[in-house]
Amino acid sequence: MQFITLLTTLVLGSTVTAHMELGWPYPFRDKANPNAPQAQIDYSMTSPLNADGSNFPCKGYQVDMDDSSGAGKSIVTWNAGGSYNFSLIGGATHGGGSCQIALSYDKGTSFTVIHSYIGSCPLSSGEDFQFTVPGDAPTGSSMFAWVWYNEIGNREIYMNCASVTIGSGSGAAPATKFSDRPELFIANLGNGCTTVEGKEVQFPNPGPAEDVTTKNSVADDSGSYTGTCAAVKGISGSGPAPSGGSTGESTSPATTAVAVPSTTTAADTTPAADTTPAADPTTLSTSTKTMTSTVTVQTVSPGVFATATASGTAPATTGTSPADPVATGTSGSGSAMVAGSPCSTDGMWNCVDGTSFQQCASGQWSVVQMLATGTQCTPGQSSTINISAIARRRGLGRRIPRRAPRDFRP
Questions:
Q1: Torsions phi, psi of 79, nearest 5?
Q2: What are the extents of the domains in the chain?
Q3: How many Cα atoms within 13 Å fall on the side-chain side of residue 102?
Q4: Is pLDDT larger for residue 333 or for residue 353?
Q5: Which of 234, 204, 237, 235 is nearest to 221 (CA)?
Q6: Least confident range of 48-52, 58-62, 241-245
Q7: Thinking of the domain 13-262, which architecture would CATH place it in?
Q8: Distance between CA atoms of residues 300 and 407, nearest Å
């Protein structure tokens, strides 16, 4: 009998090498990117950047912006001043962490941060994150970049980039000019500074308060990075962490503003057989979760979202997908633990019914996530998780299309 090697779908514990990627907009060389040459597709998009910084930025794929084959063709047009979303997909969130998104107009020579997400980024596969393109952002060809520092696991930096177009917009100019916005925070690339496991990175300069989302799940984030952050290939360079090795709390005012979380979706992570976006993306989710409040979202136009109402403050879940926490459970029971409920041992795994899993991170259980299609785990809680392939008869397998982007524009 032939067995499937699972290390490329779920690498666990301290040996984790990767598990989240930019799902939308489609990054360079992603299997879902219609512009990616077949011979150049990267089937390990979830891997972190090389520790020596050799493939920083963008895993080196920013060169596709100059590719005459069209590999760097724009995926989507966003108008200056408009509100949009990006999504993250993968198999393990490593407790969340902190993310930044940025735009580059010089093909990766420099990056300007347009939003920082401090804590809880991400907590589930298929999660959408809202942002606003600065009203004075230059128009034309641009490169969108997502950077992630995971909370639990090896000290790494994850980065994916996508080709986008910034269209003209309207409205008042923002209080902070585009040229005055910060550069990306860069660590864990042998540049003199390192993030601290179990902490959610507090960016030393996250940007204007209106472009910062803070949802810390760690009680004490002091000392979230140490050392002096030197520039990498001329990009960034944040200087030393504050005395005592603390996080480098923001020098921007009111950086602890909390944004109302949007509804997130649990999405299939199986490689897509058909990447053509559906006409109505709102029908594609398999289950819906509201993290901290019940939020009604009105679609203004494709990719433009406006919060209509927000009711209640208690966590709520809907749907019957196995990704929904349904019970408190006990050790060895194989039952799901309520997301956010206390747990005693960080790093502890919980296999739920053999089909999904969650992890203890910063004293709390994470949301439940589905295993990769064709795999199973041994139910119960343990310091390790036993993953194996499900034997199936020839001809019975099928591939499930990947979730279409919310702000897809034909």
A1: -90, 140
A2: 13-262
A3: 30
A4: 353
A5: 204
A6: 241-245
A7: Distorted Sandwich (2.70)
A8: 11
